[in-house]
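Researcher: Sequence recovery benchmark, item below. Answer with residues only.
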């Protein structure tokens, strides 16, 4: 049997696309390789959100190139956001690549592969969105985790945050029809999935392009599918997160008490320069509403440090918000200019040199907050979905998305159990399964 190896960079959208590509390859009779060295097809699914991932892709390709010595017929393909943005450039830098395709052409993988296997360069990068892109939806995903699964509900992004490459690489917002989403959720549940994770670059904009359906209605529809025990969604945008959605989150038993709500910056001046469409006060109002309706909600966020023109005073506003909200987790990065985005033309001031230090200070502040949050779990009993077994221990997540290492029987795999938390670590919890609840 021929084998494939897929390397995935970037966000949940890329992870899901890779799972779909694995589904396509499986339907063509391929099986997963344990290692890239034994693969007949290597796919590199790329991210371009910052400069670092761009560089990582090129160094990974340098490594995978070696496969051609052992197996000259092996195919190397590059797809994802960097391929969409700069596919021809990559092909010039790495001419050994056999296949390059963009973010809306993934469903053409079978034809592209056939072309590449004939010895031709198979390239498909189109700027418009492929009108048949939803063909991809009919393939089942191949997932590592048996009990939780991503479901794409909206593609692309209509926001124009000035630092962000995503609208260029993923195009305008396209929601999936509710019926198609529900059908996929049903397949997954039949396959043993307990937790459905709805994904998109901006899921809270779901349905805006149709005009007759809202995101909160989708939440109810997914919750109504028999067998769905947990629901999560990523990413919500503070501008589109409305009270109806927050009420639905509180009202639907399966929606977990956890939300990732990117703030990006605390300073109103910087938020405006980023074109985020809200002020610090408006953002904090949403957080207040979330905490009002869902008192035990866990929160996380994305932060950019060192945006053009950001001063130390601006940065301190971000620190202030981090301390006030008390996030469970933050994903903070130094600003990275992206070619073609409006912010790429904004001048970086001397302060940009200090942003690395600011970033590490911020991360240290957050470490303490997160540890304190974890410590508050000690002695509590919480619900855990047992997702896998590793080194003789069960590993799962709480509804609040905390990783838990559990003492318990193997047969608890895939079930939701009550667990008593015995110890809090910086990045995870330890506990004992009490009894099966579902
Ligand atoms: N759609 C999501 C996330 C998109 S990209 C949202 O709107 O929040 C994921 C994260 O990468 C962003 O939230 C942002 O924090 C970060 N990011 C995007 N562009 C960046 C850039 N040019 N430099 C540094 N970080 C960036
Ligand atoms: Fe990028 Fe902004 Fe869209 Fe998020 S909302 S993907 S940060 S443009
Ligand atoms: Fe990266 Fe593309 Fe996701 S740029 S963050 S893989 S949408």
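Model:
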């Amino acid at each position: 049997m021929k084998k494939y190896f897929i390397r995935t960079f970037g966000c949940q959208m890329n992870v899901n696309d890779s799972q779909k590509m694995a589904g396509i390859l499986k339907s063509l009779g391929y099986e997963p390789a344990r290692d890239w060295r034994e693969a007949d097809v290597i796919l590199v699914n790329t991210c371009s959100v910052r400069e670092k991932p761009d560089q990582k892709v090129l160094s990974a390709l340098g490594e995978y190139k070696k496969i051609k010595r052992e197996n000259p017929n092996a195919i190397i393909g590059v797809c994802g956001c960097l391929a969409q943005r700069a596919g021809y450039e990559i092909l010039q830098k790495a001419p050994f690549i056999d296949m390059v395709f963009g973010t809306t052409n993934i469903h053409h993988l079978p034809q592209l592969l056939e072309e590449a296997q004939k010895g031709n360069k198979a390239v498909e990068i189109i700027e418009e969105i492929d009108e048949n892109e939803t063909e991809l939806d009919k393939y089942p995903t191949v997932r590592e985790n048996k009990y939780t699964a991503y479901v794409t509900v909206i593609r692309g992004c209509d926001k124009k945050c000035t630092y962000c490459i995503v609208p260029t690489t993923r195009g305008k917002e396209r929601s999936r029809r509710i019926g198609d989403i529900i059908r996929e959720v049903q397949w997954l549940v039949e396959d043993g999935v307990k937790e459905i994770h709805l994904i998109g670059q901006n899921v809270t904009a779901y349905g805006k392009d149709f005009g007759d359906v809202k995101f909160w209605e989708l939440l109810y529809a997914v919750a109504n599918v028999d067998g769905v025990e947990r629901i999560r969604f990523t990413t919500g945008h503070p501008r589109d997160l409305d009270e109806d959605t927050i009420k639905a989150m509180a009202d639907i038993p399966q929606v977990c008490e956890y939300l990732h709500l990117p703030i990006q910056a605390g300073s109103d001046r910087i938020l405006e320069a980023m074109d985020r469409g809200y002020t610090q006060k408006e953002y904090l109002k949403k957080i207040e509403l979330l905490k009002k309706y869902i008192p035990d909600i866990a929160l996380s966020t994305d932060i950019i440090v060192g945006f053009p023109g950001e001063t130390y005073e601006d940065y301190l506003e971000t620190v202030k918000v981090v301390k006030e909200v008390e996030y469970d987790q933050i994903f903070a990065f130094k600003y990275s200019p992206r070619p073609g985005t409006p912010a790429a033309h904004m001048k970086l001031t001397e302060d940009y040199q200090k942003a690395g230090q600011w970033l590490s200070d911020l991360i240290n502040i957050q470490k303490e907050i997160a540890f304190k949050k974890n410590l508050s779990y000690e002695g509590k009993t919480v619900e855990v979905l047992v997702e896998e077994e590793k080194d003789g221990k069960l590993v799962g997540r709480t509804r609040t998305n905390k990783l838990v290492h559990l003492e318990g029987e193997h047969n608890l795999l895939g079930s939701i159990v009550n667990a008593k938390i015995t110890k809090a670590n910086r990045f995870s919890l330890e506990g004992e399964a009490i009894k099966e609840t579902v």
